[in-house]
Write a structure and sequence with these properties.
InterPro entries: Chloroa_b-bind. Helix content is about 50%, strand content about 5%. It has about 220 residues and is mostly helical. The protein has a 3-stranded antiparallel sheet with strand order 2-1-3, with no helix packed on it. A two-stranded antiparallel ribbon has the order 4-5. β1 and β2 form a beta hairpin.
């Protein structure tokens, strides 16, 4: 609560913010038999969802500190040597040390986030693949069209929905990263960054396999 103003029995004690102009004009005798309590939620009292973000953060967010990242760099074998077989070096485009490529401690520029080892590519591609794989199968069942037909057929709106989904998921994924938060900072029960990465990787493989299968068979997977 941003402020609490209480008026009781004609006296006007004020705690927090000052009274609004509407309450200043009330005469003491009109308040002699009852109390009036005004609570402001959020800036200016205009945000009915004030406190929701704080509650979600408290339940799902685990801040990742610089010390946590340095400790993981020193103990995690996969961080000591990249998938390219080289030791990550500072200042290189990729592979970079974890301290430089994470949004919590590294650069939050567009180029850094979308670098080969940046935080954005796998996260966004995985989310789009999960959405696209489920969406494609459902649309095939309803329309009988393959994935490519759903996108390119003039009689459908698949291309419009595809472009819109890419924009929404890209922006929604970038906002936390540009604010210095990676997917590893969020977890809620089984929904954590590790599970999302594996589901996204499987969805990318599955979506690519679906398109290849339909190109070979010249027809939808689900009739």
């Amino acid at each position: 609560m941003a402020g609490l103003s209480t008026i009781l029995m004609g006296s006007i004690p004020v705690v927090g913010n000052t009274l609004s102009p509407g309450l200043r004009t009330l005469k003491p005798r009109s308040l002699s038999t009852r109390g009036v309590v005004r609570c402001q939620a959020g800036p200016g009292g205009n945000n009915p969802l004030s406190g929701l973000k704080e509650s979600v953060d408290e339940a799902t967010k685990r801040p990742i500190t610089r010390e946590d990242i340095i400790r993981n760099q020193e103990e995690n074998l996969s961080e000591k040597q990249s998938v390219f077989g080289a030791v990550p070096t500072s200042g290189s485009f990729y592979p970079r040390p974890e301290l430089e490529r994470r949004p919590e401690t590294g650069s939050r520029s567009f180029g850094s986030l979308f670098a080969f080892d940046g935080a954005a590519p796998e996260t966004i591609n995985g989310r789009l693949a999960m959405l696209g794989f489920v969406w494609a199968l459902c649309a095939e069942k309803l329309t009988g069209l393959t994935v490519m037909e759903q996108i390119s057929n003039p009689a459908t709106s698949g291309l419009v929905f595809f472009v819109g989904a890419v924009q929404i998921f890209t922006y929604a994924s970038l906002i936390p990263m540009m604010n210095g938060e990676s997917t590893d900072a969020r977890s809620w029960g089984p929904f954590n960054a590790r599970a999302e990465r594996w589901n996204g990787r499987l969805a990318m493989i599955g979506f690519a396999a679906l398109i290849i299968d339909e190109m070979i068979r010249q027809g939808p997977l689900i009739h």
